[in-house]
Design goal:
Blueprint lengths: L1 H44 L18 H6 L6 H32 L5 H10 L5 H14 L6 H26 L2 H9 L4 H12 L1 H17 L2 H6 L7 H4 L4 E2 L2 E2 L1 H21 L1 H11 L3
Antiparallel strand pairs: 1-2
Helix pairs in contact: 1-12, 3-6, 3-9, 6-9, 7-8, 9-12, 9-13
């Protein structure tokens, strides 16, 4: 009797350990699947023309690829400047307008409020290819083709609705009593919004800003259609990296690392707010 009970007790920890082992292996496989292309690109960025076609992990690293992409004829620095300018302008316009619109939709009751919010969400489901030709004809008539301003206007068409949708969740999650207390203390609506509401929803604003920046920084389709030479963004500029032997994979890997650096840096510095923002915004 005692023996059967002991064996039964031993089976439970064994099953638990096997389940934990399977879970750990599953997580490791997912991490490996996600990180493998990034690690392979990182290795390729420091390989020479010969090593780039090999699978060896140990090689003599070189910085020639990074020098090449910032020199003639590629000059990727100009594309980085355009991408940074367009991305920061998009964030600078999207966040204030998106926060103001989200606050109004969350705190003020007016006829057609839900319909207006639904129409804002519907714009997120419109395929980019549908609006590409109308945008192109419009900007051609306004002489804005191949300018950063055309890209900013187009990017606002999808970053602004997303910011409104995201930030409204944060405003809805904030108790109204907090703002009412500031009214009792003598603050008007603008002062309450500036000194009370915005600081409390700052994690959500940072999350919206990061997603807006990433969307503008990585956007390729509209940048390819609306630019030719003077306003080529970084994703489009990478297309010019080729040579007599075809794609220069080692230089493409180096350019890919340059694209990733700003996103990784921003994610590192706001990681705390990022997690907090997603958690708060998900609770209504």
């Amino acid at each position: 009797m005692h023996s059967s009970l002991s064996s039964g007790k031993r089976r439970v920890p064994l099953a638990s350990r096997l389940a934990q082992l399977a879970e750990t292996l599953g997580v490791l496989l997912i991490i490996a699947f996600v990180l493998f292309p990034l690690i392979w690109m990182l290795l390729g960025a420091f390989k020479n023309q010969i090593d780039i076609y090999s699978v060896k992990l140990f090689f003599k690293p070189t910085l020639d690829n990074f020098r090449a992409i910032f020199s003639n004829p590629i000059l990727l620095g100009n594309n980085i400047w355009i991408s940074a300018l367009v991305s920061f302008l998009t964030v600078a316009i999207t966040i204030p307008l998106g926060a103001a619109a989200a606050y109004v939709l969350s705190r003020h009751r007016f006829k057609g409020r839900n319909t207006l919010f639904l129409l804002i969400l519907v714009t997120q489901f419109v395929p980019a290819v549908v609006v590409a030709i109308p945008f192109f004809n419009l900007f051609r008539a306004l002489n804005l083709i191949d300018t950063p301003w055309a890209l900013v206007i187009v990017y606002l068409s999808f970053t602004l609705p997303y910011a409104i949708w995201l930030l409204r969740g944060f405003f809805d999650a904030l108790p109204v009593e907090v703002e009412e207390a500031s009214y009792i203390d003598g603050c008007n609506e603008f002062q309450t919004l500036r000194f009370v509401t915005v600081p409390l929803v700052l994690p959500g604003i940072l999350v919206a800003a990061v997603f807006t920046f990433i969307s503008a920084w990585n956007e390729f389709f509209f940048a390819l259609i609306l630019t030719r030479s003077h306003a080529l963004t970084l994703p489009v500029g990478i297309l010019t990296i080729s040579g007599p032997r075809g794609p220069m994979w080692e230089q493409l890997s180096a350019a890919g690392m340059v694209v990733m650096v700003p996103i990784l840096v921003m994610s590192f510095f706001i990681r705390k707010y990022f997690v907090e923002g997603i958690t708060v915004g998900a609770v209504k």
